[in-house]
Design goal:
about 280 residues; mainly alpha; 11 helices; about 75% helix; about 0% strand
Length: about 280
């Protein structure tokens, strides 16, 4: 005979809560879907691997030519070209498949939420994927050139007799890792919005500790940036802070709309009662 769920397994809206085993099964299912999606994206990016490598070399070539230097990148070992081809296909697959991966992540989060909370997850899915792709493209098209100009300029500043040997794998790793870092850092406004919507942090608290947030962002930028030079950290920290402020603004807008809806519902209920005093 099937056991009836007790009161601890029923949420406030009558839905059955997921057990630990169900959560683990949902996690396994979402991981499989995410990996399959990434594999499909990587197959697609492998077809255009050579073109993607050529595109990734564009900021480097532009900076080198502006400094009067040859835009050469070397390969140091046998098979390095094939290795970098696979690595670029993987990185590009992560960027292309990011919307699908974020969809699986948020669907897993939403599976354990109450029905009224799941609507926020549905809103977060396209927002999260868009922010990731925007962050990756921001680094490539905006931040990469000043970063490379600073780093290559420092090498040149050390002396004309100092010759730096730039390798293709090192350059590709530098660009792709920072694209991924910027993509993740651009999730800041969504994180702030979710913290305020769930009630873990209030808008007043975020505003009060704004100076502490600045310090935390600076430390986070120094930690997650794969390059130790200060320009990379600044270029990462400034957008993160602006995105934090965007998260605060969005939280205020959503809170104002929610308050307005609640006030309207209270007024409607008050009018209903006044019109039906015996109801």
């Amino acid at each position: 005979m099937e056991r009836m769920p007790d009161s601890s397994e029923i949420d406030e809206q009558g839905g059955k809560r997921m057990s630990l085993g169900e959560h683990l099964e949902e996690l396994r299912r979402r991981l499989i879907y995410a990996i399959l999606g990434l594999a499909a994206a990587m197959i697609v990016t492998m077809i255009f691997g050579k073109q993607i490598i050529g595109l990734l070399r564009f900021p480097y070539a532009r900076v080198m030519r502006s400094m009067g230097l040859p835009p050469e990148l070397t390969l140091m070992t046998v098979g390095a070209g094939f290795e970098i081809y696979l690595r670029v296909s993987l990185y590009a697959g992560l960027v292309v498949g990011a919307p699908w991966v974020f969809y699986q992540f948020w669907m897993f989060i939403g599976a354990g939420l109450l029905p009224r909370e799941k609507k926020y997850v549905k809103m977060a899915i396209p927002f999260s994927a868009t922010l990731f792709v925007t962050g990756a493209l921001f680094f490539f098209f905006v931040a990469s050139i000043p970063c490379l100009r600073f780093l290559i300029g420092m090498d040149k500043w050390l002396g004309e007799d100092v010759k730096t040997l730039f390798t293709l794998p090192a350059y590709i790793n530098f660009v792709c890792m920072l694209m991924l870092v910027f993509g993740l850092a651009f999730q800041t406004p969504l994180a702030v919005l979710l913290l305020t919507k769930t009630g873990l942090v209030t808008i007043k608290t975020l505003r009060h500790y704004r100076r502490h947030v600045v310090v935390a962002i600076a430390v986070a930028a120094a930690i997650i940036s794969p390059s130790p030079n200060p320009l990379d950290m600044i270029i990462l920290a400034v957008p993160m802070y602006l995105l934090f402020e965007l998260g605060v603004v969005l939280s205020h807008v959503f809170r104002s709309k929610e308050t307005a809806r609640q006030d309207e519902a209270r007024r409607a209920e008050s009018e209903r009662r006044s019109n039906n005093p015996g109801g």
